[in-house]
Specification:
Distance between the termini: 29 Å
Radius of gyration: 19 Å
Bound molecules: N-(5'-phosphopyridoxyl)-D-alanine
Number of helices: 8
Strand content: 25-35%
Largest sheet: 9 strands, mixed
């Protein structure tokens, strides 16, 4: 596997992480994960915009190679031969003797690599089971930072209970899930948490918000409770890997009829149509 290291492509063995890289010691960095469909980067501009925003919020200067990032990622994709997969991009504040405050001199370190990935069609078609758990993360999860322990622990809990996602509840409000955004439908209203510091503004979420215009659903961006969630007709999650994925059971209770719902399926079809539009046949 080849790795983009700032503005150079090197082999994995030569892409060394310094022991004093702040990403390694403090989780002092940010990342993006972008889908590659048929050799095309899905929603590149939106991901780049979010990466730049995360850097700005954490006052991490943009690294060397940022202006040629897209070109270099295309080179990585070409070299890897991956047509369907994902690209992971990470920027850390850089290398410096360990002090909590920002170092005076440190060059941010950018790394990126490409991986092959199948679409998880089984989960997309049949839906997944989820649990709910307390949202114990910090109060700036709108920043896509490397600090993911709250997410990791939540996901682990889900897996241990035979589920594949953990829906996070802060107080009694459903925020998002451990690695996805949460939408819930009741009647003709589609609820999702508003974009603020309590959720990551998912790129797939943004796509789905646009796709909602092609349905009879009205988008309601408002906080809702766990109690309300359990009473919804349909629930689905969105992220870069799972796209639009039905949630058919939460905390061992069926949602609706326990099968992917009508509107979720409609949105999946709209997502599929969008992909067909983007990918020249
Ligand atoms: N995570 N919320 C959280 C907490 C996430 O980690 C993610 C995605 C999302 C959805 O964002 P997007 O639609 O831009 O993928 C929402 C990625 C996939 C990850 O950490 O691997």
């Amino acid at each position: 596997m080849n790795i983009l290291l700032n503005d150079e492509i090197v082999s994995r063995e030569n892409a060394m992480v310094d022991i004093e890289d702040r990403g390694y010691q403090f989780g002092d960095g940010i990342y993006e994960m972008i889908r590659i469909y048929d050799g095309l980067l899905f929603e590149w501009e939106a991901h780049l915009e979010r990466l730049v925003r995360s850097a700005k919020e954490l006052m991490i200067p943009l690294p060397k190679g940022m202006e040629v990032l897209q070109k270099n990622i295309h080179l990585l994709m070409k070299e890897s031969g991956v047509l369907n997969g994902s690209v992971y991009i990470q920027i850390t504040r850089g290398v410096s003797p360990r002090t909590h405050h920002f170092p005076e001199i440190a060059d941010p370190v950018l790394t990126a690599y490409v991986r092959e990935m199948e679409r998880p069609l089984e989960q997309i078609r049949n839906g997944i089971k989820a649990i709910t758990t307390e949202d114990i993360r910090w109060l700036r999860v709108d920043i896509k930072s490397l600090n993911l322990l709250g997410n990791v622990l939540a996901k682990q809990k889900a897996v241990e209970q035979g589920a594949s996602e953990a829906i996070l509840v802060r107080g009694d409000i459903v925020t998002e899930a451990s690695s996805s955004n949460v939408f819930a439908i009741r009647g003709q209203e589609c609820f999702t948490h508003p974009t603020n510091q309590f959720i990551l503004n998912g790129i797939t979420r943004q796509v789905v918000v646009r796709l909602l215009e092609s349905t009879n659903l009205t988008l309601v961006e408002t906080p809702f409770t766990k109690e309300a969630l359990m009473e919804m007709d349909e629930v689905f999650i969105t992220n870069t890997g799972l796209e639009v994925c039905p949630v058919i059971e939460i905390d061992e209770q069926l949602i609706g009829d326990g099968i992917p719902g009508y509107y979720t399926t409609q949105l999946q079809k709209a997502f599929e149509a969008l992909l067909l539009e983007l990918i020249p046949q």
